[in-house]
Specification:
Elements lengths: L6 H5 L5 E2 L1 H6 L4 E5 L6 H12 L4 E5 L15 H7 L7 E3 L8 H11 L12 H15 L4 H6 L5 H5 L4 H27 L12 H9 L18 H10 L3 H6 L2 H14 L12
Parallel strand pairs: 1-3, 2-3
Antiparallel strand pairs: 2-4
Helix pairs in contact: 3-5, 3-10, 6-10, 10-13
Length: 276
């Protein structure tokens, strides 16, 4: 079977979004929250995982932060009621409890994926330890994505502990993660593997390739520009020019990112919103 998911599966991914209330009332199917037109990176990574696992998704409108001007109510109150948190994305499946943490979302995607889809969590426990360890420095607290969020002072950065001291340390930490990934890829190449763990695709390849778009921009053929994401794309492009980050980025990092995204993931990404 071709590594790339069939075009029929890809075309079935609709850009229609349902409401959070509609999603909560559903008893069947897999639903994930998104912001139309925006490649919110954890949502994008989860979407790519499900794409690889051939899990059809219903897209749900993730309520934005703040207070509704008409009602005066917190826009995220219902989300908090359902999940006891407000972060993006929330994953619903059938009538099971919602999943909001990446490690639980990965486990669910692995379980509900088709039998003929790639296995993203290795059976080999040594490989599994390597895979989850690498995922943690990409996705976890004080890892790549965390430090990317605190590069500049924004409401989201404040949520993740922004301070001038933390922000000034972030580029060095991001560069350390990139260098670690690059060394792993170099060692894997010597073993004849294009992947970060073992000799087959695992979840960390998907997570890294997706999240690395925040510090290594991709062509519009992979990530289209929309009215909603154009500012974010500019921010990501600027991140790649920060000296510590720029010096850590290698051809090997770029090649792995493009190979994983174009071979296994939804490209061009389907975002909804207003294309430019």
């Amino acid at each position: 079977m071709n590594d790339k998911v069939s075009s029929e599966t890809k075309e079935s991914q609709s850009t229609k979004f349902i409401t959070l209330e509609e999603s909560a009332s559903m008893q069947k199917g897999t639903r994930v929250t998104f912001v139309p037109g925006v490649q919110a990176m954890f949502s994008e990574a989860l979407k790519n995982l499900c794409y690889v696992k051939r899990v059809p998704l219903t897209r749900v409108l993730h309520p934005i932060m703040g207070v509704d001007e008409k009602t005066g109510e917190d826009r995220q109150a219902k989300l908090f009621e359902l999940t006891s948190q407000t972060s993006l994305p929330t994953m619903f499946h059938d009538d099971e409890r919602p999943r909001n943490v990446w490690i639980e979302q990965l486990a669910l995607a692995e379980r509900i994926g088709t039998k003929d889809s790639p296995k993203l969590i290795p059976d080999n426990f040594e490989h599994r330890a390597d895979m989850f360890g690498l995922c943690a420095i990409v996705l976890g607290e004080d890892g790549l994505t965390w430090n990317m969020r605190i590069l500049i002072d924004t409401p989201l950065a404040q949520k993740y502990g922004y301070s001038e001291e933390a922000s000034s340390s972030a580029p060095k930490k991001i560069a350390e993660v990139i260098t670690l990934i690059d060394r792993r890829l170099e060692a894997q190449e010597k073993q004849g593997s294009r992947y970060l763990v073992g000799d087959t695709l695992t979840a960390v390849d998907i997570y890294w390739a997706t999240m690395s778009m925040t510090i290594l921009p991709v062509p519009l053929e992979i990530m289209p520009k929309t009215k909603q994401n154009q500012g974010m794309l500019m921010f990501f492009a600027a991140n790649s020019e920060i000296p510590e980050i720029a010096n850590a980025l290698t051809v090997r990092i770029k090649d792995h990112q493009r190979y994983i995204l174009t071979t296994y993931c939804e490209t061009p990404a389907v975002l909804g919103g207003d294309p430019l």
